[in-house]
Amino acid sequence: MRIVGIRRSTSLAAAAVLVAAGLSACSNSASSSPSVLTVWDYEAADSAMGVAWAQAVKDFEKAHPGVTVKVQLKTFDQIQKGGAMLLNSSNAPDVLEYNKGDATAGLLSKEGLLTDLTPEVAKYGWDRKITGNVAVTSRYTNGVMGSGDWYGIPDYAEYAMVYYNKDMFEKYGVAVPTTFDQFVAALQTFASKGITPLASAGNDYPAQQYLYDLALMKADSSWVTAYQTGGKADFTDAAWTWAANTFQQWVDKGYIAKDTVSSTSTDMGTAFEQGKSPMMVSGSWWYGTFESEVKSFSWGSFLWPGAQHVPGSGGNIWVVPAKAHNKDLAYDFINDTLQPDIQNLIANKGAVPVAADPTQVTDPMAKTLISQYQSLAASDSLAFYPDWPVSGFYNDLISQTQNLMNGSSPGQVLSALQTAYQQGLSQ
Amino acid sequence: MAQATALEDARPDSLRRPRRPRRPRRVGRQSSGGGRAGRTPISYLALVVLGALALAMVAPFVLVVMNGVKTSTDYAAHGPLSVPQSLSLANLQTFWQQVDFGQVLVNSVLISACVAVFAVLLSILSAYALGIGRIKGRTTILVLFLLANLLPQEALIYPLYYLANQLGLYDTRLVVIIIFTVIQSAFGTYLLSSVLGAFPRELLEAARIDGAGVWRILWRIVVPISRPTITVMLTFFFIWTWNEFLIPLVLLPSNQNETVPVALGLAQGEHMVDVTMQAASALLGIFPAIVFFLIFQRTLSRGITLGAIK
C-alpha cells in the first residue's frame, strides 16, 4: 500500500508541475507595437523568395531605424487551411504571403478581411510593375479575380517552360526545337531510341498541364478569357478536340510513359533529374531546384515552340490584413520587396521576378528566365492553369486525363470535362 | 491499514504486481532447449513470413533515415532508393533551426502531457459515475460521448475557432489542451466506464461496510485496481494528442506555439516537395515517438489486449 501511495503522489506532483507549466506558458502572444513589423510567409529560407526577402528585411530595417521586422516561416498548408481564421483574429500579422485565387484571397476580400491596396498601388506605382495577366490575381471584384480593387501584390510570377537535358540532346543529335514540328520530331527521335522523351505525372498537375499546353496551341486570347473567366468553355471545339487526340497519341507513341498515370509531380522531377527523360514541361517553380540539385548533366529551358500562350500567372501575393496593426510600415515593406535589387536576387536564385532589371543581372540562367518571362508578359501570353475556372475542377482534370492515358475515347473524356465544368459554374 | 491490506490481497492476481514475474519467465523459455527441438517446417515458414513482415515494417524507417542524411544533389542524381554517397546532417540541422525545433518539441510535450493527465482525471471521475455509480440514462450519455468522438474534426473546427477567438484563447496552447482534454476524455469515459461496469461488486461492498465514502472508494480502491487500464489510457492519450494535426494547425498559427506534426509540413510547398528535407524532418519527428515507445512499450502492448482482458 505504501508503495502505491508513493507512486501516486509522485505522479500527482508531476501532473501539478505540468499544469503549472502549461498555464504559465499559455499567456496570449498577441502584441502590437509600432516598432515591430510582423511578416509571415511560407517560402523556405534557402529558396529564391526566402533569400530575397531576408535581404528586403535588412534593407527595410536600415531605412526604418528603430523598427524590428519579425518574420515567421509558415507552411503552405497552414496558411491554406487556417489563413481565413488567422486574418479574422487580432493575432493577424502586418504582412502575410497569401494564396492567390477566388477561394482564398478573393473570398477574404469579399468578407472585408483584407485591406484594399488600391490607394497604395497608385501612390507607389505598383501597377507599372505588375501589368497584364500577372495583375489578374491581385484584383478582385466581389471576390472574383480579374478586375476591380487591388488586394494583393505578387513579387514573382510563374510560367511553364520545357526543361531539357543538354547532354542527352547532344548525345542523340537533337537541336533545340523552334517550331512545333521540330519539337514533335525531337520527341520521335528519343522515342525511337527507347527513351521516354517527356517526364510527366498523371496523378498530379503535370499531365493536365500537358493537355492544356496542347489546347493552347490552337487558342487565342479570347479563347483563354472565355475558358478562364467567361464561363464559356467549349470542350468540343477544335482546340480541345485536337489536344485530347494528340495527347492520347503521344501516350500511345511513348512520348509520355503510360505508367506515369499514377505518379506524382515529385516522381516527374526525379525522372528528369536522373536523366531518365530528356525533357519535362512544367512551371518555373522547378528552376531553382534544378539549379541547386542537378549536377550530373547540364540543362536549359525553352518555351513551348509555336504556342501563343503558355500556362502561368502571377505568384502568391502579399496581403495586408484588415486587422493589421502597422499598415503604413506594411506598405513600405511590400514596396521594398519590389525594388530592383531584391527582384534581381529572386532571379539569381532561379525564380521569376515581376519587376527585375535585366541589365543588372549577370547570371546567364537568370537572364534566360527574365527575358522569357518579359516576352510572355509583354504579349500577355500567360494563360493561367486549366483547373482555375471552377472550384474542384482539379480533381476532374486529374481523373479524366488518367482516363485518356488509359485509353478512354477523347470524346468521352471531353464531354465528362464539359459536364464537370458546367456543374462547377452553376454552384 | 489492515483494511487496505485485506483489499490488496483480494485483487485478481493478474492485476497485482504486473511486472516482476515476467522477465524470468521469458528468459527461461529461451534457454530451454525443448522448443528448438520441436520446430517443424511450419514454424520455419512462420519465421520467414514474420521476418518478411518485419522487414516491410522497417523499410519505411530505413528509407526515411537514408534520405534524411542525403544531400539533395545526391537525391537528384540517384533517386530515393540509393545508399547515401556521404553522410550529411545539413538537412537535419537546417530543419531544426528553421522551425526552432526545440521550442516545437516543448510545445508538443507540454500539450500532450497536460491532455493525457487531465483527460485521464476527467475520464476517471465521469466513468466512476457512469460505470460504478450507474446513474440514470448512462447509456444515452455514453452514446452521446461516443458521437462527439466520431464527429470529424473538420466539422468542429470552425465552431472551435469561433469560441477560442471570442474567449481570447486563439493561438494559445491552453485552448488546444482544453479541446483535446474533452475529446480524449469522451473516449476515455466510454472505455473506462465499461471496464468499471465489470468491477467486482464485493470489493465495493466490503469497502462500504468498512465505512469508506464515495470519494475514498474511488481513490483508494477503484483507481489503484484499475491502474493498468489507466496507464494504458494515459499513454494512448499522449500519443494520440501528439499526432493530432488539423486542430493544432488551425488554432495555433504562430511559430512559438507550433506542434511537431504541423512543423513537419514545412518541406512541402505549393508545387514542390523537398524530399530530403521532408525525410530529415520526419526523422526528427519520429524520434520522440520512438523514445516514447521504448519507454512505454510494455504499457502499449498491454493496450492492444486491453479489450480482451477488460
TrEMBL record, chain A:
Keyword Signal belongs to the record: yes
Record-linked InterPro entries: Bact_solute-bd_prot1, SBP
Domain of life: Bacteria
Pfam families: SBP_bac_1 (PF01547)
Keyword Coiled coil: no
Keywords: Signal
Protein's name in the database: Extracellular solute-binding protein
Species whose genome carries this gene: Actinospica acidithermotolerans
Automatic annotation (TrEMBL), chain B:
Main location: membrane
UniProt keyword annotations, A-Z: Cell membrane, Membrane, Transmembrane, Transmembrane helix, Transport
Calcium in keyword set: no
InterPro entries: MetI-like (IPR000515), MetI-like_sf (IPR035906)
Gene3D superfamilies assigned to the protein according to its UniProt record, in alphabetical order: MetI-like
UniProt-listed PROSITE patterns: ABC_TM1
Keyword Transmembrane helix among UniProt keywords: yes
Localization per record: Cell membrane
One Gene Ontology biological process: transmembrane transport
Pfam name, any one: BPD_transp_1
Cellular component terms per the entry's GO annotation: plasma membrane
Chain positions covered by the region annotation Disordered: 1-36
Protein's membrane topology: Multi-pass membrane protein
Compositional bias of kind Basic residues: 17-28
Segments traversing the membrane: 44-66, 109-130, 142-162, 174-196, 217-242, 275-296
Domain ABC transmembrane type-1, first and last residues per copy: 105-296
Family: Belongs to the binding-protein-dependent transport system permease family.
Identification of the protein by name: Carbohydrate ABC transporter permease
Organism per entry: Actinospica acidithermotolerans
Phylogenetic classification of the source organism: Bacteria, Bacillati, Actinomycetota, Actinomycetes, Catenulisporales
